[in-house]
Specification:
Belongs to the short-chain dehydrogenases/reductases (SDR) family. InterPro entries: NAD(P)-bd_dom_sf, Sc_DH/Rdtase_CS, SDR_fam. This is 3-oxoacyl-[acyl-carrier-protein] reductase FabG. GO terms for molecular function: 3-oxoacyl-[acyl-carrier-protein] reductase (NADPH) activity. This protein is α/β, with parallel strands linked by helices. It has a single domain, classed as NAD(P)-binding Rossmann-like Domain (Rossmann fold, 3-Layer(aba) Sandwich). Helices cover 50% and strands 16% of the residues. It is built from eight helices and seven strands. Strands 3-2-1-4-5-6-7 form a seven-stranded parallel beta sheet, sandwiched between helices. Helix 1 runs parallel beside helix 2 and helix 1 crosses helix 6.
Amino acid sequence: MENTYTLITGASSGIGRAFALEYGKRGQNLIITARSGDKLQELKREIEKDNQVSIECIIMDLAAEGSAKLLYEEIRKRKLHVDVLINNAGFATKGLFHKTDYKRQHEEMLLNIVSLTELTYLLLEDMCQKRHGTVINIASAASFNPLPYSAVYAATKAYVLSLTQALSFEYQDYGVKLLAVCPGATDTHFFDGFKTAASRLRMPEDVVRTTEKALKKGKSICTDGTFCKAQMLLSRIASRKSVLGIMGKTGRKTWG
């Protein structure tokens, strides 16, 4: 359908940008959204240079109250139909919990949890009516274990993983696929200053390839990279106390 689009949040950089570039190459129409209009326009020009696709840019701060509904209403106003939703937008606060600005932590919860949930809720109805659609929620290696010094972030991503897996079961008979993607250490803004060798960081394009393989296999969860697989394995074989000790040392060393 000429009027069918893939909606990507947080599309201006990192994993979201990689999804936009890949899906554009495949000839899929795109709705790209982020806070930076300049970066969205730059991305649009880059994709349109070599691909015959329709790209709609919507400037939106999804960390603001009510923003998901505003985005949905703008999509409806433009008479666009979304058959793939990629909930990628997110950020992390880092540091000792009570020393970290609470306003930022509240915005973190609004973006990582509330907007993701509301967009999924609003678009699922249309997908169910058509009995076709895909929702890709970007979770994290932090989904599997508590992460001291980035406690709120890890908690939000645990929510994303749990929600997505539950909904993948609920909607399996409606023709709608839901997938939680758990990247590990990836070359994005989140890992700026991360104390590891650059060669060990995965690239955003790696995450996109892993996602596509998982979708073809009908999975509800996929992990990308050794770092993430280790986090998932740790959550399964170690006691909660041991996990907390290991993650606490990592968090203190990196962000404490």
